Every structure is written in structure tokens, then in C-alpha cells.
Amino acid sequence: MRAPLSTLEVVRPRNLEHALALLHESQDGERLVPLAGGTDLYVSLNAGVVPGKRFLDLSGLRELRGVRRRDGGLALGALTTFSEIREHPGVRRRYPALAAAAAEIGAWQIQNRATLGGNIANASPAGDSLPVLLAFEAVVRARSVRGPRDVPFTGLFRGYRDLALESDELITAVSLPPLGRALHFFRKVGTRRAQSISKVVFCGLLSLGRDGRVDLVRIALGSVAPVTLRARRAEQVLLGARPSAAAAAAARAALLEDIAPIDDIRSDRDYRLLVSGNVLEQFLRTAAPRFVTR
Amino acid sequence: MSPAVTLSFTVNGRRRRVRVPPMKRLLDVLREDCGLTGTKEGCGEGECGACTVLVNGLAVNSCLVPAVQAGGARILTVEGLARRSRLSVLQRTFIEGGGTQCGICTPGILVTAYALLRRTRGRVPREDEVRAALAGNLCRCTGYQKIVDAVRVAARRTGTRRPGGTRGRSRGKKGARR
User: Fold this and answer.
1) Which of A132, A161, A176 is the last residue before a domain boundary?
2) pLDDT tens for each residue of A12-69
3) What is the mean pLDDT of chain A?
4) Is a pLDDT exceeding 90 seen at residue A170?
């Protein structure tokens, strides 16, 4: 049943400093729940789950908007929407896997509202941008009344929906490091192409050195474990290997050791294991045809 | 005590002022406080797109938007497409081409299609573009083909004019060349 919305309060901060102070002060009493695009929050509310009674509306904070160049890469403000990401020329050119993910998160109506910071903060193991950010080795910039700090994406997820962030910290931006010329691959598998929550979501980066061996490979998956994860065993098998059917088969076997999918309402373990392996092979043959089996 | 905020915004070009709880859904503000019941609730979880409206030109699910974030916004609902009793070209091509059946999804689809035609003004969007744009709008009657066709016929008829405009030629099949 839908939660009664008429009793919920909203606080609208003047600026980021004000927001951080309000969030910090609220820790001793009725905690403020940060609110950005609301696309996850309202699904919960409309289903009767109320994560709090007081909300901190971040939508007016200009400090959290915009895409900038930073350290040879890009810094995306936490309030950057997936529509903005999908259409941003710099993202499309240099981080095509993220542009691809942004285009498959919900549909237009969701992409126009949902934010990158919100996708991270919601910390769903099925969050579609998360494997991409993990493969990019992105850095989350968080801020509290104590100041800013950088949290590498690699250490961000401690457990199921458990972020390595303090409850009075806000995500302010996400930094994408330069990635060179690796091939970007993104694949989301759901019940249908649009709108569905992922059964398996996959991001891969791969490049070959002059000697024809894999000199960079990163593989990250969502919806196949309690957290979004890097497939380190599969990466290890591939790094330094020459593309071959044998290498692809070894990587596939290693991948099954990396992931730990479960049966749930969206899919089951066996399907996810099979599809993860299939998507890995699709990634490899997209990156280098010699990975093709046969 | 229920909190309430006073909000001003425009809906279909008309200024509105409402006093509502800040987390009330924009969908309910439009239907209950503005009396605009053209916008429908389907799933209530951002899946079906029946409640689609434009906020500052962008298609959103109004069931997922808190009222407080609509303050100062320009909102367009399905009621804003027609001029008095004169339907827009898009609405007419939906009727002529069988793009609407039971009608519950139609307001949201018209609004999303309107946003698409504004983006592609001056050319006819490809079929896959229409399908991608409407991916967040579910229809359980039509099977979608007639909706997609109606959107493309409307684009052909309006040319470079405002896609929601009411003055497009009504010349039936002749104008519907692929």
C-alpha cells in the first residue's frame, strides 16, 4: 500500500554548506534522508516503504551539477542526470560504456530525473551505472561538515547496500580517470530492453598491446552478488594472454568463481551464471575476434 | 500536523498556485489540486509512463516527482496539447491511425511523443527512434505499431511547425508515405 505522503517533511538547503550542516545536525534526532531525482525513493514510498520522515532536497544545489574536466578525465556532479550523461559529448567520446549504461537505465522519463549520485547512494546490487564506474576505477568525492574526501569506487561497497560513506556525508561528484584507448563494452540483460531491472549487468574494458597480448582488462558485473564486483579471477586469466578460444574458455571458467548469483524474483542462479558467461564471451569477441570459440 | 508549502508553477501556460504537502506526488497535485485529470496513474512506480508530463520540457513520471521540486516549473500535460476543442495534429493522427484503444496510456504517450517531435523538429524520426523514446510508455492494447506510425505521420504533417500544433493538414493516407 502507498505510504501517506502528507506527513513527510522536506528541508531545502540554501547551498551545499547548509545542506551538510543540516544533515550533520540531524544525526542525533530524526535523520534527514537525502533526496535528488526521487526515482528510487518514490518507488519505495509508493510501495509503502518509508525510509524516513524528513527529506533533504538536494535538487537546488548548483554545486552538485555539471560535468567538468578534471585531472585529464571528467568530473560529473552528483546531480548529473542520466539524460545529461547519455548526451554529453565528452562522455560519449571518452567513456562510451557510461553513455551506453545511461541510455539503458529506465527510459526517458527516468533518465530525465535519475542522478548518478543517486544511483550510487541507493547502492542496489542491480544499479546499472555501478559496474561501469567500478571498471573505470572512478573516484567518489564525498563531503561532510568535516570537509571533502575521495573514496575509490573499488572500496565503496562493503556489503549488501552498505556504502563506505558516513551517514552525514553527501556524494558531491564522481571523477572518471583517463582510460586511454581501451574498448568499452556494456551489456544489460533484463526481461526487456528498456525499463527492466537487470538480471545481469556487465561492463568490460580491454586493450591489446603491440605484442598482441591483452595489456588492460577490467570486468565488472552487477546483479550477480550482494555487491557490484570486479571479476578479478577472470581479469587475471586474460591479462597478458593472446586472444584465443582457449583464453576465452579459461576466462569464462574463472568468471564463474568470481560471481555468486542467487535465485530471486527477477531471475535465478543458473540463468545468471550462464548469461554472465555468454556476455563475457560476447565482450571478448567484440574486443578481439580471435577470442571466438572454434 | 501535516506540513504544507505554497508552490507556483505554470501548467499548460497558465499560472497556478497551490498549497500542498511538499512530498505530495506531482501526479496528485495535477489531478486533485489543479483539476487536470487527463494525466493518469498506471503503475505508480515509474514503470508504465501513463503519468508522463513535461517538466521544463523534459518527460518525467509525475508519480515519482515530489510537488516541492515542481515549484517554478513549466509543466505540460495532455490537456495542453489541444487548443480549445481543436485537437493537435498528434492527437488526430492517433485517432485516425488507431494509435489509441482503451486510452489509459494515451495521455502519457502523447506527451512523450510530443517531447520527441520537439527534439526532432524538421524531420521525421526513424521508427527505432520513436520506439526508444516511447520505451518508458507501456500500452497493453495496440501492440505499439499503430502508435509508432501515428507519431511518424504527425511528424510528416507538421514539418517544422510546433509538433503539438493544431493546424497540420489533415490529408489522411496520402501524407503517410514512408
Assistant:
1) A176
2) 999 999 999 999 999 999 999 999 999 999 999 988 899 999 999 999 999 999 999 9
3) 95
4) yes
Q: Which three cell numbers stand for residue B174?
A: 496520402
pTM of the complete model beyond 0.90:
yes
B89-176 has which fold? DNA polymerase; domain 1 (1.10.150)
What burial class does residue A37 get, using C-beta atoms within 10 Å of its C-beta: 0-12 exposed, 13-18 middle, 19+ buried?
buried
Helices (H), chain A: 16-25, 41-46, 82-87, 89-94, 96-103, 108-111, 116-122, 130-136, 232-238, 245-258, 269-287
Of A8, A39, A109, the CB nearest to B49: A109
How many domains does one find in chain A? 3
- Chain B residues close to A83, C-beta within 8 Å: 58
SS3 for chain B, per residue? CCCCEEEEEEECCEEEEEEECCCCEHHHHHHHHCCCCCCCCCCCCCCCCCCEEEECCEEEEHHHCEHHHHCCCEEECHHHCCECCECCHHHHHHHHCCCCCCCCCHHHHHHHHHHHHHHCCCCCCCHHHHHHHCCCCCCCCCCCHHHHHHHHHHHHHHCCCCCCCCCCCCCHHHHHCC
Residue B165: predicted pLDDT: 60
Is B132 close to A59, i.e. CB distance below 8 A?
A: no
Superfamily of domain B5-80: Beta-grasp domain (3.10.20.30)
Residue B72, min C-alpha distance to chain A (Å) = 12
Provide the residue range defining the domain that includes A19: 9-57
> pLDDT by residue (tens digit) across B10-39?
999 999 999 999 999 999 999 999 999 999
